[in-house]
Automatic annotation (TrEMBL):
NCBIfam families recorded: transpos_IS30
Organism annotation: Vibrio pectenicida
A single MF term (Gene Ontology): transposase activity
Record GO cellular component, one term: cytosol
Domain Integrase catalytic residue range list: 82-243
Name of the protein in its database record: IS30 family transposase
SUPFAM superfamilies on file: Ribonuclease H-like
GO BP terms in the entry: DNA integration; transposition
Highest taxon above the source species: Bacteria
């Protein structure tokens, strides 16, 4: 096995990144030239020989469908809409503007809280025992106390789990905004990030059976693998670059 092939196999099996990202990251960080088409051919040969690498390729999901779930309710006290959010949050020129959401586990009896920085694509994931607002507040206390993020804005859907948004804003020192009902694209980065998480933990996963260490490992994988939108740098790369430039 060549050095390029070994490096590809290691990156692909660990990160489940698409071939174009693997190609870009190998070139950027390891000075290894391996094209996207070469990677696809390698995966196909592996499959013909009984290998399972093809199962790690991204699958095109079904188009997102809006539905009348908790995320579309608007009966939240002192709710501030996304139309009031500073424009700089969309400019992606500074760290600290996060989209946030929850992911449901099997039978809606286990949950994850997810946060993603709009500029660096840095991801934070926490397990939730339930979807109650006070549980989410406690999770944010942990996030704020265990990370180095300078939170400026948070944007969520209209789910009842974010009803204590004023407490969350106080904890993080940020301004809290809500997307418009049935406008999932206003948190498109969060939707995409949740899709990445689902590649590791598909729908039907019981997060009660997933350890904190496994969640931390997933967070590490997502934050250290290259992204095409970041020029094949990782979220950690971008985060550290801007910290050092500040």
């Amino acid at each position: 096995m060549s050095a390029a092939t070994a490096a590809f196999s290691r990156l692909f099996s660990i990160s489940c990144a698409p071939p174009d990202v693997i190609s870009g990251e190998l070139n950027l960080k390891h000075d290894i030239q391996i094209s996207e088409s070469t990677i696809y051919r390698y995966i196909q040969r592996d499959r013909e020989q009984g290998g399972l690498l093809y199962q790690l390729l991204p699958h095109r999901g079904k188009p997102y469908k809006t539905h009348s779930g908790s995320g579309d309710r608007v009966n939240i006290k002192n709710r501030v809409g996304i139309e009031n959010r500073p424009e700089i949050a969309d400019e992606k020129t500074e760290l600290g503007h996060f989209e946030i959401d929850t992911i449901f586990g099997a039978g809606q009896k286990s949950f994850l809280l997810t946060l993603v920085d709009k500029m660096s694509k840095s991801v934070v994931i926490r397990k939730l025992a339930n979807k109650q607002a006070n549980t989410v507040v406690e999770a944010f206390k942990d996030v704020h106390g265990s990370t180095f993020y300078d939170f400026k804005t948070l944007t969520s859907d209209n789910g009842s789990e974010f009803a204590a948004h004023e407490d969350i804003a106080d904890i993080t020192g940020s301004d809290f905004f809500f997307a418009r009902p049935y406008h999932s694209w206003e948190r498109g980065l969060n939707e995409h990030t949740n899709g990445l998480i689902r590649r590791f933990y598909p729908k039907g996963t019981d997060f009660n059976k997933v350890s904190e260490e496994e969640i931390a490992e997933l967070e590490h994988i997502l934050n250290t693998r290259g992204r095409a939108s970041l020029g094949y740098r990782s979220p950690n790369d971008v985060f550290l670059e801007h910290l050092m430039a500040a």
